[in-house]
Design goal:
- The protein is elongated and about 95 Å long.
- The strands form eight sheets. The protein has a six-stranded mixed β-sheet with strand order 7-4-6-5-9-8, with no helix packed on it. The chain has a six-stranded mixed β-sheet with strand order 16-13-17-21-20-18, sandwiched between helices. It has a five-stranded mixed barrel with strand order 22-25-24-26-28.
- A hairpin with a 3-residue loop joins strand 8 and strand 9.
- The longest helix has 19 residues.
- It is built from seven helices and 28 strands.
- With 402 residues, it is α/β, with parallel strands linked by helices.
- The chain starts with 6 loop residues before the first helix and ends in a 5-residue tail after the last strand.
- The chain binds adenosine monophosphate and magnesium ion (MG).
């Protein structure tokens, strides 16, 4: 065991080979989840004109307090042609263009009296009151979103507001997923003796759905040389090939041998983690090749620790490794002396607002239904003895909390 690669060493070997893919133009309506290849600047001043922050009246502050004649009305989208003169007010809606000549907006609530023609205002507004200056959010040409940022809803909104119709994004990594195992049946089919339902392919596709990748789930294959050869060769056309199963030491574990025959150079096999020890990683040309173990929790943990970081790096993200958070163990845990463990746990806030992590019962790597009730993976570094209740730990959001 002592000769196993550590998690850090294995992740470094993956990231050293996950160089950014190129970029391509992407329409703003399709940019959610994509990573910017370069900083994106505003195409207009935002707001594009001085606009009213309130429903009210555009005025000259120096006229007030006093009585003003209402000479026009502006709704959003319909600027007034009238130049406001002293003694006049123009009724204005939120978002309306502040008419030239006006230097403040009086909210409708501050009008003490109104008849058809006139308003009375009891106080003088500050110069510029309730006017949103042109370019006050971001100026034409200034940066709206930096380079290497994954676009969420708010970034999509900001870019659209700033007039960006298309932007340069990292190319989406193409990921081929392949489940191997003669025992696998499709969910919904009757189970023959010895069969189990295939879950890893669907689960890994789901785990990677928000990673920016373009995912192809290949038809599952039995533990048969020629079936493996054909499916793996097809998967090697992608940027990333991820298989599940068949990387242990059994006579039916064919993935590594067939990959080697297809020209995959193995970079590592087996890492000092639990679950997920038999994970393999190699390359063929520019294709990254991950062999995740078949036990469902092992394959999910391998996906979090190796595949997702690689996809982030391929898209140019600068901190590709999992974002670990800090918290405390609610109950003690025995440590593994040889391997770093990732323990499924429930998250809750303690009264001081810190994260408390309650390890679940049922930590075996086939127990995917138990894992589905967890919302955290707690990192328990290898070592002697026990981590007591209250010990500080790092943990990774997973499942429900993501
Ligand atoms: P393997 O890594 O192929 O030795 O598989 C380890 C365990 O995971 C075995 O119990 C397999 O039946 C199970 N397993 C393998 N692939 C899958 C899969 N796609 N879905 C669910 N369980 C799997
Ligand atoms: Mg198998």
């Amino acid at each position: 065991m002592a000769d196993l690669l550590t998690l850090d060493e294995a992740q470094a070997l993956v990231l050293a080979r996950a160089r950014p893919l190129g970029s391509e133009p992407v329409a703003i309506g399709r940019a959610l989840g994509r990573v910017t290849a370069a900083a994106v600047n505003a195409r207009v001043d935002l707001p594009p004109f001085a606009s009213s922050a309130m429903d009210g009246y555009a005025v000259r502050a120096a006229d007030l307090p006093g009585s003003l004649r209402v000479v026009d009305r502006v709704a959003a989208g319909g600027p007034s042609a009238h130049e406001l003169a002293s003694g006049e007010a123009i009724e204005i809606s939120t978002g309306g263009v502040v008419p030239s000549g006006a230097d403040a907006v009086v909210p409708v609530e501050y009008v003490v009296h109104r008849d058809n023609e006139r308003i009375d205002v009891a106080e003088r507004p500050a110069h510029g009151a309730h006017i949103r200056p042109r370019g006050g959010d971001v100026a034409l040409g200034a940066e709206v979103v930096g380079a290497a940022v994954r676009l969420g809803a708010v970034q999509v909104g900001a870019l659209a507001a700033a007039g960006v119709a298309e932007l340069e994004c990292a190319r989406r990594p193409r990921v081929a997923l392949l489940a191997t195992g003669s025992e696998l049946a499709a969910p919904g089919d009757p189970l023959a003796p010895g069969q189990i339902y295939e879950s890893n392919g669907l689960m890994l596709a789901a785990a990677l759905a928000s990673s920016g990748a373009d995912i192809e789930l290949l038809p599952r294959v039995a533990d048969d040389d020629s079936a493996h050869r054909a499916a793996l060769e097809r998967g090697l056309a992608a940027d990333v090939l991820v298989s599940s199963g068949g990387v242990s030491v059994g006579p039916h574990d064919l993935v590594r041998r067939v990959e080697a025959e297809l020209g995959v150079e193995e970079v590592f096999w087996r890492v000092a983690i639990k679950p997920g020890k038999p994970v393999s990683f190699g390359v063929r040309g520019a294709t990254l090749v991950f062999g995740l173990p078949g036990n469902p929790v092992s394959s999910l943990v391998g996906c979090e620790l190796f595949v997702k970081p690689a996809l982030r790096a391929l898209q140019g993200l600068r901190r590709p490794l999992p974002r670990l958070e800090t918290g405390r163990l609610a109950t003690g845990l025995r440590r593994n002396d040889a391997r770093d463990e990732f323990v499924r746990a429930r998250f809750r806030l303690d009264p001081d607002g810190g994260a408390m992590l309650e390890p679940l019962s049922g930590q075996e790597s086939h127990m995917i239904a138990r894992a589905a009730t967890a919302d955290a993976l707690v990192h328990v570094p290898r070592g002697e003895g026990e981590l007591p209740a209250g010990a500080p730990v790092s943990w990774l959001r997973h499942g429900l909390l993501e």
